[in-house]
Each structure stands twice: as C-alpha cells, then as structure tokens.
Amino acid sequence: MTLTVALAMLERDGRWLLQLRDDIEGIIHPGCWGLFGGHLDPGERPGQAICRELREEIGWEAEGLPLWFEHHEARLTVHYFRAPLTVPLDDLQLNEGQDMVLAGLDELRSGLVWSPRLRERRALAPTLERAVRRLGGETGNH
To answer: What is the pTM of this model?
Structure first.
C-alpha cells in the first residue's frame, strides 16, 4: 500500500514555515521539523488535501496552492506545494505539532532548527530535507 501525502513549503519574507512534529511514538518522523500537510483522505486530490490540512493544522485558509514537485518511493508519494504565506506568523494557530517557526535557508541547510518553545535545536525530517535540497538547487549558492 502506498502512502500519499501533500506538504506545503510556505515562504514569508525569505523564510520558510516549519512544523515541529510531536514526540509521539508511532508517528512518522517524531520530534523533527517538517512541513505542514498530511495524508490524503480517500477520493481527495492533493490540492484539496493541502488546503484541508493547512486549515486543520494552522487555521489558514489557503486557496489554489501551486504544485511544486512530486516525489515517489516504493511506498510513499509526496506532493509538494510551494506558495507565499500571506499572513504573519502570529495570525496562525498551531493546532498540531509542538512548535512552528519561520526559518531561513541557511538555518535549514545546517540541518538543525531552533525551537523557541523547547529551547533547543531539532533535526529536519527527510521530507523537509528533500524540499530544502530542491530549493537550494533553484536558488544557487546565494
């Protein structure tokens, strides 16, 4: 069975919105920084799923986010969406995960991002690392 997810790479003022996943055994990449998004419901298209997930996870009403790229593995398909975050971080409500931040590309490339709530650095989930590599390839070495 293939797991299909939709994730959002959202940018505001040159920084990217991240979710610190819960430290719960049994979830994918617990305690790591990832992107907001999640599984597709039965019959749901990726674009519908990402809008639903953003509404559920941060209370943001996104519309028509453009597909950035797709990644396929043996048991995983990831649909990455990329768009501007049109509201300030303070306007979002964290409903899932233990923290959220806007992180710059240099911090993302370091592989560790600071959590203000936990007061420590945490690693990136593989799905976020893949997006950072893609982003780095597009922006060059600036």
So the answer is: 0.93
